[in-house]
Amino acid sequence: WMRGGEKCMFYGVCDELTLTPVSWFVSCLHLVWFVAIFPFFIHLAVGFFLPTSVCFGRKTPRRIAGGMAGRIVSFRVVTKGENPSLVRETCARNIGKLLDRAPFPWIVEVVTDRFLDIRQSFRSFSEDHFEVAERVYEILVPDDYRTEKGTLYKARALNYANRDGMSTLGDDDIVVHLDEETLIDESSIDGIAQFINDNPNRIGIGLIVYGQDLIVNPWMTMADSFRITDDYTKHRLYFTLGAPLLGMKGSFVVMPVSIERGGGGWDLGPDGS
Questions:
Q1: Within 10 A of 206 (CB to CB), how many other CB atoms are there?
Q2: pLDDT tens, 125-138?
Q3: Long-range contacts: 93-96, Cβ < 8 Å, 24+?
Q4: Where is mean pLDDT largest: 18-22, 116-120, 177-181?
Q5: I want to staple 273 with a disulfide (CB 3.0 to 4.6 A). Which of 69, 152, 251, 266 is the partner?
Q6: 259-269 confidence digits (pLDDT tens)
Q7: Pairing mode, if any, of strands 2-3 and 6-7?
Q8: Maximum CA pair distance of the chain?
Q9: What is the distance between the alpha carbons of residues 230 and 248, in angstroms, rounded to a whole number?
Q10: Is the separation of the CB atoms in 81 and 113 below 8 Å?
């Protein structure tokens, strides 16, 4: 019946609830799904509301001279080498930011499965890029390289980069791990400098946002944007506690070389790859 333009419907009362086998199966799947994600949401909630993980002082851009003297910061990009133009563009844009902003000595290292000739590509731009090209290093991972534990993928490449003679870095230097599409900005550089100055011997992780440049696939961008929640809550909780309880992400990670090379490096085996 109708009243005041609203449509009211009476469905009745069910005296007995009967579930078909299909309904039982779907209900069980709902329960399994809830039990599986419940710990994840607990971590998000604790990470969001725990004061020690969110109540940091606001970072203000500043030039830091002390505490980093003599320490080189390597922005290490790891890639399969299947998209050379993307790697070159990312490196070029990041180098431009570093030239304008970085208060510390820096280099760029590209760890790749395929030869890209990154340094020569910078030299060919103009004479102004020749000096910049000397700060760019390419580490080519051989096809037949195998670790002792059989590590695969990205961890395999990073483990090779830590072998003696592969990098010019010393144990006192710093590595900032980036993916081939990860771009840095002024706030990234300021945050890295401040973190290293305040925590010279710790591992740090930074926030990555999405959709800040040309969006190629809106659906994938929206899916990736959910990962910002992890950065603001779960990962901040873990790094406040000093223990990655459910792992850590692999990009925008700041790590002292001494920690990378100690304890077996990135040779984590197939399960940890």
A1: 19
A2: 555 566 788 899 99
A3: 93/183, 94/178, 94/183, 94/184, 95/132, 95/135, 95/136
A4: 177-181
A5: 152
A6: 888 877 888 88
A7: antiparallel
A8: 85
A9: 10
A10: yes
